Amino acid sequence: MLKPSYPIRTDRLILRPYTPDDLDALHAIHRLPQVTRYLYWGPREREQTREALERKITETALLEEGQALTLAVELAATGELLGDVLLIWHSRANRTGEIGYVFHPDHNGRGYATEATRAILELGFDGLDLHRVIGRLDARNEASARVLEKLGMRREAHFLDNEIVKGEWTSEIVYAILSREWHARH
């Protein structure tokens, strides 16, 4: 079980639960085709973003396996919403989880995704006592692969044409890191 104390601060970022006031900033991210290109969903209308936000607002703790923790990521210096990070608790018995992240492209290349995802991995390993965490991505998403590699995750699988997403066959790459590998690095 994981009930973090909020906000969570890194050198440059604040990770916190979403609030209804985040709708405009979240929609500015979710409406962009370049953001959703490699995701399961396409650019969202405002009402679709509102529905997604309502779900994200409830994802503030991991009380049971199968639940997700989603945190808004804002720039500490300005309060601007940059995107979000996600931790899914897959299995209590196997102590496994999964991470994910979505960021506004205006902030790419500055290490924000890596910094925020490092904090969510710390929650998974130190707060939830996970043994193994994975990150899955569309094989074409090279920028996302670089984030996972910077975190010390290793590429474990490449599934060719394993899913039809948005009407086309897509390939998936899976990265992973074990608790002992994480703690050896940090």
Question: What is the topological layout?
Answer:
Layout: E1 8-9, E2 13-16, H1 23-30, H2 33-36, H3 46-58, E3 68-75, E4 81-91, E5 96-103, H4 112-127, E6 132-138, H5 142-150, E7 154-165, E8 168-178, H6 179-185
Parallel strand pairs: 5-6
Antiparallel strand pairs: 1-2, 2-3, 3-4, 4-5, 6-8, 7-8
Helix pairs in contact: 1-3
Structural write-up:
- There is one protein chain.
- The longest helix has 16 residues, at 112-127.
- The protein has helices spanning 23-30, 33-36, 46-58, 112-127, 142-150, 179-185, and strands at 8-9, 13-16, 68-75, 81-91, 96-103, 132-138, 154-165, 168-178.
- By secondary structure, the protein is α+β, with helices and mostly antiparallel strands.
- 31% of the residues lie in helices and 34% in strands.
- The two termini are 22 Å apart.
- It has an eight-stranded mixed β-sheet, sandwiched between helices.
- The radius of gyration is 16 Å and the shape is globular.
